[in-house]
Amino acid sequence: MMESCGVKEVLDWRVKSGVGIWQPKALMLPASVVCAFSSRQGGVSGGPYTSLNLGLHVGDRHEDVVTNRRRFSDALGIDCEGWVAGDQVHGKDVAVVGRKDRGRGALAQDTALPAVDGLVTNEPEVWLTCYYADCVPLLFWDVDGRAVGVAHAGWRGTLAQVGLQVVAKMVEAFGSDPTEIHVLVGPAIGSCCYSVGEELAGLFEKEFGGEPLTRKQVQTYLDLKLANREYLVRGGIPPDQIHVSRLCTSCLPGVFFSHRRDKSPTGRMAAVIGWRKP
Ligand SMILES: [Zn+2]
After folding, report:
1. Which of 61, 140, 169, 256 is within CB 3.0–4.6 Å of 249 for a Cys-Cys bond?
2. Burial class of residue 28 in the structure, from the number of CB atoms within 10 Å of its CB (0-12 exposed, 13-18 middle, 19+ buried)
3. What single DSSP character describes residue 105?
4. At 229, phi and psi to the nearest 5?
5. How far is the CA of 248 from the centre of ligand 1 (A)?
6. Block means of pLDDT (10 residues each) for the chain, length 278 residues?
7. In contact, 128 and 101? CB cutoff 8 Å
8. How far is the CA of 100 from the centre of ligand 1 (A)?
9. 266 C-alpha to center of ligand 1: Å?
10. Phi, psi of 270 (to 5 degrees)
11. What does CATH list as the number for 9-190+225-275?
Protein backbone atom coordinates (compact mmCIF):
# COMPACT_ATOMS: atom_id res chain seq x y z
CA MET A 1 0.00 0.00 0.00
CA MET A 2 2.59 2.53 1.08
CA GLU A 3 5.29 1.70 -1.41
CA SER A 4 3.29 1.00 -4.54
CA CYS A 5 4.95 1.97 -7.82
CA GLY A 6 8.30 1.87 -6.01
CA VAL A 7 7.71 5.32 -4.49
CA LYS A 8 8.32 5.43 -0.75
CA GLU A 9 5.83 7.01 1.62
CA VAL A 10 7.21 10.25 3.09
CA LEU A 11 5.38 9.91 6.42
CA ASP A 12 6.12 7.53 9.28
CA TRP A 13 3.43 6.11 11.55
CA ARG A 14 3.97 6.12 15.27
CA VAL A 15 1.79 5.69 18.34
CA LYS A 16 2.45 7.82 21.41
CA SER A 17 0.28 7.31 24.52
CA GLY A 18 -2.27 5.56 22.31
CA VAL A 19 -2.47 8.45 19.82
CA GLY A 20 -1.67 7.51 16.21
CA ILE A 21 0.44 10.15 14.45
CA TRP A 22 1.90 10.61 10.97
CA GLN A 23 5.17 12.52 10.86
CA PRO A 24 7.77 13.15 8.16
CA LYS A 25 11.13 11.43 8.39
CA ALA A 26 13.26 13.43 10.82
CA LEU A 27 15.91 14.19 8.21
CA MET A 28 13.41 16.07 6.07
CA LEU A 29 12.92 18.81 8.65
CA PRO A 30 15.04 21.56 10.22
CA ALA A 31 15.61 20.60 13.88
CA SER A 32 13.43 23.47 15.09
CA VAL A 33 10.28 22.43 13.21
CA VAL A 34 7.46 20.30 14.67
CA CYS A 35 5.05 18.96 12.11
CA ALA A 36 2.45 16.17 12.13
CA PHE A 37 -0.87 14.87 10.88
CA SER A 38 -3.38 13.24 13.20
CA SER A 39 -5.24 9.99 12.59
CA ARG A 40 -8.55 8.85 14.06
CA GLN A 41 -6.77 6.70 16.67
CA GLY A 42 -6.44 7.58 20.35
CA GLY A 43 -9.36 9.87 21.14
CA VAL A 44 -12.53 9.82 23.24
CA SER A 45 -15.21 10.70 20.67
CA GLY A 46 -17.91 8.19 19.78
CA GLY A 47 -20.24 7.33 16.91
CA PRO A 48 -19.21 8.77 13.55
CA TYR A 49 -16.46 10.76 15.32
CA THR A 50 -14.67 7.68 16.69
CA SER A 51 -12.30 8.45 18.06
CA LEU A 52 -9.78 11.28 17.64
CA ASN A 53 -12.01 13.88 16.01
CA LEU A 54 -10.19 17.23 16.07
CA GLY A 55 -12.87 19.32 14.32
CA LEU A 56 -14.87 21.63 16.59
CA HIS A 57 -17.29 22.55 13.80
CA VAL A 58 -18.75 19.16 12.82
CA GLY A 59 -21.34 18.50 15.56
CA ASP A 60 -19.26 16.43 17.98
CA ARG A 61 -19.35 17.04 21.76
CA HIS A 62 -17.23 20.11 22.44
CA GLU A 63 -15.53 18.70 25.53
CA ASP A 64 -14.58 15.52 23.67
CA VAL A 65 -12.91 17.48 20.87
CA VAL A 66 -10.99 19.57 23.40
CA THR A 67 -9.85 16.38 25.16
CA ASN A 68 -8.77 14.96 21.80
CA ARG A 69 -6.84 18.11 20.91
CA ARG A 70 -5.05 17.97 24.26
CA ARG A 71 -4.16 14.31 23.71
CA PHE A 72 -2.75 15.05 20.27
CA SER A 73 -0.82 18.06 21.61
CA ASP A 74 0.62 16.03 24.48
CA ALA A 75 1.70 13.27 22.11
CA LEU A 76 3.59 15.87 20.05
CA GLY A 77 5.02 17.66 23.08
CA ILE A 78 3.38 20.99 22.21
CA ASP A 79 0.82 23.09 24.11
CA CYS A 80 -2.80 23.15 22.95
CA GLU A 81 -3.09 26.76 24.17
CA GLY A 82 -0.69 27.71 21.39
CA TRP A 83 -2.75 26.31 18.50
CA VAL A 84 -4.03 28.74 15.89
CA ALA A 85 -6.87 27.88 13.49
CA GLY A 86 -8.71 29.62 10.70
CA ASP A 87 -12.44 29.30 10.18
CA GLN A 88 -12.01 27.54 6.83
CA VAL A 89 -14.19 28.51 3.85
CA HIS A 90 -12.52 26.75 0.87
CA GLY A 91 -11.01 30.09 -0.14
CA LYS A 92 -7.50 31.38 -0.79
CA ASP A 93 -6.99 34.01 1.91
CA VAL A 94 -3.92 33.65 4.12
CA ALA A 95 -3.35 35.34 7.49
CA VAL A 96 0.00 36.26 9.05
CA VAL A 97 -0.17 35.31 12.73
CA GLY A 98 2.13 35.56 15.71
CA ARG A 99 2.38 34.90 19.41
CA LYS A 100 -0.47 37.36 20.08
CA ASP A 101 -2.75 34.96 18.18
CA ARG A 102 -1.85 31.86 20.18
CA GLY A 103 -5.05 30.09 21.20
CA ARG A 104 -7.28 31.48 18.46
CA GLY A 105 -9.58 28.65 17.42
CA ALA A 106 -7.75 26.28 19.78
CA LEU A 107 -10.46 25.54 22.33
CA ALA A 108 -13.45 27.26 20.70
CA GLN A 109 -14.37 27.67 17.04
CA ASP A 110 -15.67 31.23 17.45
CA THR A 111 -12.20 32.58 18.23
CA ALA A 112 -10.71 31.17 14.99
CA LEU A 113 -9.49 33.67 12.39
CA PRO A 114 -12.50 34.34 10.19
CA ALA A 115 -12.59 33.13 6.59
CA VAL A 116 -9.00 32.04 6.08
CA ASP A 117 -7.70 28.75 4.70
CA GLY A 118 -4.01 29.54 5.08
CA LEU A 119 -1.82 30.69 7.98
CA VAL A 120 1.84 31.69 8.19
CA THR A 121 4.11 32.68 11.07
CA ASN A 122 7.77 33.33 11.81
CA GLU A 123 7.34 33.39 15.57
CA PRO A 124 8.12 30.41 17.82
CA GLU A 125 5.56 28.10 19.43
CA VAL A 126 2.70 29.32 17.30
CA TRP A 127 1.20 25.99 16.22
CA LEU A 128 -0.58 26.49 12.91
CA THR A 129 -3.40 24.03 12.22
CA CYS A 130 -5.88 23.09 9.53
CA TYR A 131 -8.67 20.51 9.59
CA TYR A 132 -9.66 18.12 6.84
CA ALA A 133 -11.29 14.81 5.92
CA ASP A 134 -10.30 14.32 2.23
CA CYS A 135 -9.19 17.87 1.35
CA VAL A 136 -5.44 18.31 0.89
CA PRO A 137 -3.47 19.65 3.87
CA LEU A 138 -0.32 21.53 2.86
CA LEU A 139 2.51 22.29 5.32
CA PHE A 140 5.33 24.72 4.48
CA TRP A 141 8.69 25.44 6.07
CA ASP A 142 11.67 27.59 5.19
CA VAL A 143 15.06 25.84 5.25
CA ASP A 144 16.18 28.04 8.14
CA GLY A 145 13.33 26.60 10.22
CA ARG A 146 12.02 30.01 11.29
CA ALA A 147 9.07 30.52 8.93
CA VAL A 148 6.22 28.05 8.50
CA GLY A 149 2.79 27.86 6.92
CA VAL A 150 -0.31 25.74 6.53
CA ALA A 151 -3.11 25.56 3.96
CA HIS A 152 -6.33 23.63 3.48
CA ALA A 153 -7.00 22.84 -0.18
CA GLY A 154 -10.12 21.07 -1.38
CA TRP A 155 -10.87 21.31 -5.08
CA ARG A 156 -11.95 24.95 -4.75
CA GLY A 157 -8.88 25.97 -2.75
CA THR A 158 -6.66 24.02 -5.12
CA LEU A 159 -7.99 25.87 -8.17
CA ALA A 160 -7.77 29.15 -6.22
CA GLN A 161 -4.07 28.28 -5.69
CA VAL A 162 -4.18 28.69 -1.92
CA GLY A 163 -0.81 26.91 -1.72
CA LEU A 164 0.87 29.59 -3.80
CA GLN A 165 -0.87 32.25 -1.72
CA VAL A 166 0.92 30.83 1.33
CA VAL A 167 4.25 30.97 -0.52
CA ALA A 168 3.55 34.56 -1.59
CA LYS A 169 2.74 35.52 1.99
CA MET A 170 5.97 33.94 3.30
CA VAL A 171 7.92 35.91 0.67
CA GLU A 172 6.11 39.17 1.41
CA ALA A 173 5.98 38.97 5.20
CA PHE A 174 9.21 37.15 6.05
CA GLY A 175 11.46 37.59 3.02
CA SER A 176 11.47 33.86 2.31
CA ASP A 177 12.87 32.68 -1.02
CA PRO A 178 10.63 30.16 -2.85
CA THR A 179 13.71 28.11 -3.73
CA GLU A 180 14.28 27.60 0.01
CA ILE A 181 10.74 26.57 0.90
CA HIS A 182 9.74 22.93 1.39
CA VAL A 183 6.14 21.75 1.13
CA LEU A 184 4.59 18.61 2.54
CA VAL A 185 1.41 17.51 0.77
CA GLY A 186 -0.35 15.41 3.39
CA PRO A 187 -2.82 12.51 3.43
CA ALA A 188 -5.92 13.28 1.35
CA ILE A 189 -8.36 11.48 -0.90
CA GLY A 190 -6.37 9.89 -3.72
CA SER A 191 -7.11 9.47 -7.39
CA CYS A 192 -7.95 5.85 -6.49
CA CYS A 193 -11.17 7.05 -4.80
CA TYR A 194 -11.94 10.61 -5.91
CA SER A 195 -14.41 10.22 -8.76
CA VAL A 196 -15.61 13.56 -10.10
CA GLY A 197 -18.22 14.81 -12.54
CA GLU A 198 -17.32 16.01 -16.02
CA GLU A 199 -17.82 19.66 -15.16
CA LEU A 200 -15.22 19.56 -12.37
CA ALA A 201 -12.91 17.38 -14.46
CA GLY A 202 -13.14 20.00 -17.19
CA LEU A 203 -11.98 22.77 -14.84
CA PHE A 204 -8.84 20.79 -14.01
CA GLU A 205 -8.27 19.73 -17.62
CA LYS A 206 -8.29 23.39 -18.63
CA GLU A 207 -5.52 24.10 -16.10
CA PHE A 208 -3.37 21.01 -16.40
CA GLY A 209 -4.40 19.01 -19.47
CA GLY A 210 -5.10 15.37 -18.72
CA GLU A 211 -2.34 14.88 -16.14
CA PRO A 212 -4.31 14.85 -12.85
CA LEU A 213 -7.23 12.95 -14.42
CA THR A 214 -7.67 9.22 -14.86
CA ARG A 215 -10.57 7.91 -16.94
CA LYS A 216 -11.82 4.40 -16.28
CA GLN A 217 -14.81 3.43 -18.40
CA VAL A 218 -17.44 6.05 -17.59
CA GLN A 219 -15.79 7.41 -14.42
CA THR A 220 -13.20 10.16 -14.12
CA TYR A 221 -10.85 10.32 -11.13
CA LEU A 222 -9.01 13.42 -9.97
CA ASP A 223 -5.59 13.58 -8.30
CA LEU A 224 -5.84 16.71 -6.13
CA LYS A 225 -2.39 16.20 -4.59
CA LEU A 226 -0.82 16.21 -8.04
CA ALA A 227 -2.69 19.39 -9.02
CA ASN A 228 -1.40 21.14 -5.88
CA ARG A 229 2.11 19.93 -6.60
CA GLU A 230 1.92 21.24 -10.16
CA TYR A 231 0.86 24.72 -9.05
CA LEU A 232 3.71 24.81 -6.51
CA VAL A 233 6.24 23.86 -9.19
CA ARG A 234 4.87 26.59 -11.47
CA GLY A 235 5.27 29.02 -8.56
CA GLY A 236 8.98 28.30 -8.22
CA ILE A 237 9.18 25.64 -5.50
CA PRO A 238 11.89 23.15 -6.56
CA PRO A 239 10.19 19.80 -7.38
CA ASP A 240 12.48 17.85 -5.06
CA GLN A 241 11.32 20.07 -2.17
CA ILE A 242 7.69 19.06 -2.58
CA HIS A 243 7.08 15.92 -0.54
CA VAL A 244 3.82 14.17 -1.40
CA SER A 245 2.25 11.59 0.91
CA ARG A 246 0.73 8.64 -0.92
CA LEU A 247 -1.79 7.98 1.86
CA CYS A 248 -5.44 8.05 0.76
CA THR A 249 -7.94 9.05 3.44
CA SER A 250 -10.74 7.10 1.76
CA CYS A 251 -8.75 3.86 1.40
CA LEU A 252 -7.89 3.58 5.12
CA PRO A 253 -11.14 3.64 7.20
CA GLY A 254 -9.45 2.56 10.44
CA VAL A 255 -6.88 5.34 10.16
CA PHE A 256 -8.56 8.38 8.64
CA PHE A 257 -11.93 10.11 8.51
CA SER A 258 -13.19 10.57 4.95
CA HIS A 259 -16.03 12.88 4.09
CA ARG A 260 -16.56 11.20 0.74
CA ARG A 261 -16.58 7.67 2.20
CA ASP A 262 -18.36 8.27 5.54
CA LYS A 263 -20.78 11.04 4.44
CA SER A 264 -21.79 13.66 6.99
CA PRO A 265 -21.42 13.68 9.93
CA THR A 266 -17.85 12.56 10.31
CA GLY A 267 -14.73 13.78 12.11
CA ARG A 268 -11.73 15.77 11.01
CA MET A 269 -8.00 15.18 11.17
CA ALA A 270 -5.63 18.06 11.91
CA ALA A 271 -2.37 19.03 10.26
CA VAL A 272 -0.08 21.06 12.51
CA ILE A 273 3.23 22.86 12.02
CA GLY A 274 5.28 25.30 14.09
CA TRP A 275 8.80 25.77 15.39
CA ARG A 276 10.51 26.16 18.69
CA LYS A 277 13.81 27.65 19.71
CA PRO A 278 16.41 24.92 20.15
ZN1 LIG B 1 -8.18 5.68 -2.19
Report:
1. 256
2. middle
3. T
4. -60, -45
5. 5
6. 64 97 91 97 98 97 98 98 98 98 98 98 98 98 97 98 98 98 98 97 97 95 98 98 97 97 96 94
7. no
8. 39
9. 17
10. -120, 145
11. 3.60.140.10
